[in-house]
Amino acid sequence: MSATTQHHELPTATILGYPRIGPRRELKKAVESHWAGRTTEAELEQAAAELRRRTLTHLRDLGLAVEDSSIPLDFSYYDQVHDVAVALGVVPERFADLRAADGTIDLAGYFTLARGEGDRVPLEMTKWLDSNYHYLVPEIGPATAISYAGSRRVQEVREAADLGITGRPVLIGPVTLLLLAKAADGSPEDFSPLDRLDDVVAAYAALLADLRSAGASWVQLDEPALTSDTWATPTAEVASAVARAYGVLASAPVGAASDDGDAARPAILVTAGYGSLGDAVDPLLAAGVEAIALDLVKGAVPATRAPDGGARDFSHVALVGGVVDGHNVWRTDLDRAAGRLEELGALGAAATGVTTSTSLFHVPHTVADEAGNPELPAAVAGWLAFADEKVGEVLALAAGPDGAAEVFAASRAVVADRAAAPGVRRGQVRERAAGLPASAFTREAYAERQAAQDAVLDLPALPTTTIGSFPQTGELRRARAELRAGTLDEAAYAEAMRAEVARVIALQEELGLDVLVHGEPERNDMVQYFAENLDGFAVTQHGWVQSYGSRCTRPSILWGDVSRPAPITVPWATYASSLTSAPVKGMLTGPVTILAWSFVRDDQGLGETANQVALALRDEIADLEAAGIGIIQVDEPALRELLPLRRADHEAYLDWSVASFRLATSGVGVTTQIHTHLCYSEFEEVFGAIDGLDADVTSIEAARSRMEILPAVAEAGFERGIGPGVYDIHSPRVPSQEEVVELLRGALTSVGPRTLWVNPDCGLKTRGYDETTRSLTNLVAAAREVRGSLVG
Ligand SMILES: CN1c2c(nc(N)[nH]c2=O)NC[C@@H]1CNc1ccc(C(=O)N[C@@H](CCC(=O)N[C@@H](CCC(=O)N[C@@H](CCC(=O)O)C(=O)O)C(=O)O)C(=O)O)cc1
Ligand SMILES: N[C@@H](CCS)C(=O)O
Ligand SMILES: [Zn+2]
């Protein structure tokens, strides 16, 4: 592989980013200690600097080159989108005081924007592309101040230099920043944040110049939004924004700041992870950026011809092939990856390099940390590559099949071993999934179900309920940690959880809720818990990945055919039910969400795997029903998350995802009421699918949007039960009774009282008991008030 461009040595073997949370969640712990007031800001800064130093030296020790900008500088205290918005001094009006006169926002302000303060709501959080990471949405209006006032990356370039490392600062690119932003409150209807492109690009130019002065030879600008065509902005307008933005940025001279003070810049590497760059490659080629990194795992090698039929000229750009999956954990088939790199090489680029398809922050640090994990069979561990192992794969691919013959041979052995391993394909599971009749996916007509359920359940108008989890107290988490450590035995653990269920049931009775839940105290996570109880999954001990801010999950590993060896939730639901005469809602996580929040086998289609999970859940639902649980909720918060980034792929996705939910839930009788719950979504986009799920009751996140979706729901003729969340569980704020009453009265203008349910936005696991109790008291009082006025 050629190693140079006209100006700079290209990072020929690199990664697009590395986990930021630390191998033992050091950053999470440092940040949360600071928030809790246990450490000063200086102590936090010191802990973060130490983590960055360890990361840099670790990447160097793994073999990434220190001189050629191969090592990314991508630290973040909270979120990478927020980092850039803050560097540009972007704050919503309600937080204007956090921006100093010179445009800077200090660390305390950075956290306040992320977490809110008193009545000032934080920035909205939404899912990042098709992943389980959530970013903070910048709010940009026509008058929002935008200027470069300083970036932490500049200091990080210097820190790296002190270690003898020429690091490559990583930033979200200007077009993606604006496509991910939302119009600030009060913006004219026809305003789009992309209208502020010129101001943003001017600020980026200053930022790039600053990075260059600090010694950066390359800068990485992440433009994953270019792999999607689902933005409100038409693709042609996005392409012209790319041309304009990079035309300006690339027009500055590359290299050292010249004597007359012209702003020089580092060479620009634009990345486009999460899918195909498609025709967005043309404006980048025309703009003259020095390098483009392509996702060759989910995306394609660019065609040699542009849509207008003209031959594409790659001779002035370096192309970096993202052939190592940054978003999943399977060891790379190196022969296949090398083949893709060859295809890329055939385009005639000025230079080529090898990298990951996305940043590695979606995967845990290292498989080595799982040594001795009884929940991860050694055979399966051998098939995995987490971040460190992926660095090794990138280096092997850069060395090539001759240079790294042993690594290539090991990769071939893994491919063969995985295909033939016991448990990967199990006859019984496959026969059952293959022979499903159409009737396995359908229930009786809703009218029939509704009548039967009304008769059996006898619920009041506007029934009140919660979404499932009650606060996961430190005590509960500690009990689980002690169980893992062996200092608490199974029986004592189960007893502690049963005691919590009893407390939660008593509390709900006291509050006067109509449909109760057991509270999910026994669940470490709504996906991992099921994975731990299903065959075909493995779980990690230390495989934490960031989900948002300081919050992490340990995605499970779905490696083989899935089945349910024994009932999972039935004992908890029946125990809870035995404590009350009120109905108790069974609580399961749906097949799509189980897949979305796990690392899923890549040797078959997702739809096939989803149906296996669905059949396991169908068995669980049958057992719950047989045990007398008449209401069963199957959560699908990730239904929107997996929606493909290209519109052309939506239909096929919605077909299999909806079918798997229906397969899980269609085995019940007419009187059993199936609920579902969705959150973190722009529901408009998946409304047809929500309807297609055919659940009797659907609860959705709606409080933050003041229930804007309801008129559309009504207009679409949605006739089944709906529970638009009446308060935001992401904030500690307690809603007043009046406020909930107002929301409910508003909702009743779109939805009839027979179909309107009253519930919070989402589960209460991240909240405390005090605020939960006060909020639910107001929720129940509000429902009663509105109910009373209906009768009167
Ligand atoms: C609803 N969401 C979820 C998503 N993905 C999931 N897989 N799960 C979700 O619930 N995606 C979208 C949203 C938003 N995302 C999140 C993600 C993570 C959290 C969260 O609160 N995470 C917790 C960790 C939860 C957990 O796994 N708990 C375990 C282990 C707890 C632990 O750290 N134990 C300590 C010791 C105990 C102690 O002293 O406290 C240890 O092991 O060191 C458990 O309960 O057993 C987090 O803290 O980040 C929320 C929303
Ligand atoms: N039943 C889950 C859904 C979260 S999306 C909970 O209440 O936490
Ligand atoms: Zn939820």
UniProtKB/TrEMBL annotation:
One of its GO terms (biological process) is methionine biosynthetic process. Binds 2 Zn(2+) ions per subunit. Pathway: Amino-acid biosynthesis; L-methionine biosynthesis via de novo pathway; L-methionine from L-homocysteine (MetE route): step 1/1. Keywords: Amino-acid biosynthesis, Metal-binding, Methionine biosynthesis, Methyltransferase, Repeat, Transferase, Zinc. It comes from the Bacteria. InterPro entries: Cbl-indep_Met_Synth_N (IPR013215), Cobalamin-indep_Met_synthase (IPR006276), Met_Synth_C/arc (IPR002629), UROD/MetE-like_sf (IPR038071). Residues 462-784 form the Cobalamin-independent methionine synthase MetE C-terminal/archaeal domain. Residues 13-345 form the Cobalamin-independent methionine synthase MetE N-terminal domain. Pfam families: Meth_synt_1, Meth_synt_2. L-methionine binds at residues 467-469, 520, 635. L-homocysteine binds at residues 467-469, 635. GO terms for molecular function: 5-methyltetrahydropteroyltriglutamate-homocysteine S-methyltransferase activity; zinc ion binding. The active site is at 730 (proton donor). The keyword Magnesium does not apply. Catalyzes the transfer of a methyl group from 5-methyltetrahydrofolate to homocysteine resulting in methionine formation. PANTHER family: 5-METHYLTETRAHYDROPTEROYLTRIGLUTAMATE--HOMOCYSTEINE METHYLTRANSFERASE (PTHR30519). Belongs to the vitamin-B12 independent methionine synthase family. This is 5-methyltetrahydropteroyltriglutamate--homocysteine S-methyltransferase. It comes from Serinibacter arcticus.
